[in-house]
Amino acid sequence: MTTGTPPALVTLGEAMAVVATVAPGPLATGAPLRLGWAGAEATVAIGVSRLGHAAAWTGRLGEDAAGAMVLAGLRAEGVDVSAARTDPAAPTGLMLRERRTADRLRVSYYRAGLAGSRLAPEDLDEAQLTGARVLHVTGITPALSATARAAVEHAVAVARAAGAVVSFDVNHRERLWGRAEAAEVLAGLLPYTDIVFAGPEEAALFVPEESPERMARALTRLGPAQAVLKLGARGALVATGDGGLHIRPAVPVTAVDPVGAGDAFVSGYLAAALDGSPVEERLHLAALCGAFAVSVPGDWEGLPRRTELGLLAAQDISR
After folding, report:
1. pLDDT in tens, 182-213
2. How many other C-beta atoms lie within 10 A of the C-beta of residue 286?
3. Which residues form the Carbohydrate kinase PfkB domain (predicted)?
4. CA-closest candidate to residue 61, choices 19, 30, 16
5. What residues have CB less than 8 Å from 99, skipping those under 6 apart?
6. What phi and psi, each to the nearest 5 degrees, are found at residue 86?
7. Among candidates 235, 28, 290, 12, which has minimal Cα distance to 129?
8. What residues are annotated to the active site?
9. pLDDT exceeding 70 applies to what percent of the chain?
């Protein structure tokens, strides 16, 4: 992001340190480990920034080495963190990730009551929100605490009143809350959302479980102008409020790490929206970003830059 450029995209949420094994096997004494950091909303901000649009991330981090690592990493990716807060009263959260077998990941989170969950409406930079073209939120943040939920609701209200596009990724996390509570709370965001992203199981929080096409169309009747269903290896589809339907196969690649692929997909879709591209081109860029992400270990490390998109052109059979 160019210094002084107002962010085109603003997002808010939790980010945490990650300790991950680098080879299959249990997390045990002597296991080789990789230290990093992650966060769904931060991944989207990085993806949009790498694709050439100014992006900002807001959240709370501890006044500790892990929090400093996250902030330094986001700054290095050109993401505006001027509105991020450090919390002297709570440490940064932690994720432990082990590749228990060659094809099974096991993840443990340490986040309850920690810095990320203490995000509150007063942490938000309203000038940043009113100047953004897109606000992106997820269903993770409202699940963290009452104050974090209030922060999301306030951000949506401010951004929408200013005319920004509101993007919402359902991102349901069953470890944080049950389906009934999630459905009740997150359904309240849909009428104020312009673009909603969900997998079929997440869409079923709000609409009857049917074909992906029918579910996406049903979501648009709840408020969003565009409902994007992420179907993993089967690709994705978008239903629009005017009755349009756009279907996109996935780009075939060798999957190394599925973590972060959905957020990478969202970053590509929103970057293309900021480009002013039509829905078909948004899906195209989203699919490429998702393919890059699953091809590289880590949550955000594999996100592409514009100059790299052609590397997967040969695999993109839908073009």
Report:
1. 999 999 999 999 999 999 999 999 999 999 99
2. 29
3. 9-303
4. 16
5. 20, 21, 23, 24, 25, 105, 106
6. -105, 140
7. 12
8. 263
9. 97
How do the domains of the chain map onto residue ranges?
Answer: 9-14+40-89+118-304
Torsion sign, CA atoms 116, 118, 121, 124: negative
Residue entry with tokens 């944080």: 176
Helix pair 261-275, 40-50: axis angle to 10 deg: 40
For residues 11 and 41, give the distance between their C-alpha atoms in angstroms, rounded to a whole number: 6
Please give the residue that has the higher pLDDT: either 46 or 21: 46
Tokens found for residue 45 = 């901000």
Is the pLDDT confidence value at 16 over 80? yes
The whole model's pTM is what? Answer: 0.94
Q: DSSP letters of 119-157?
A: --GGGS-HHHHHH-SEEEEESSHHHH-HHHHHHHHHHHH
200: its two tokens: 């079929």
Give me the CATH code for the 9-14+40-89+118-304 domain, please: 3.40.1190.20
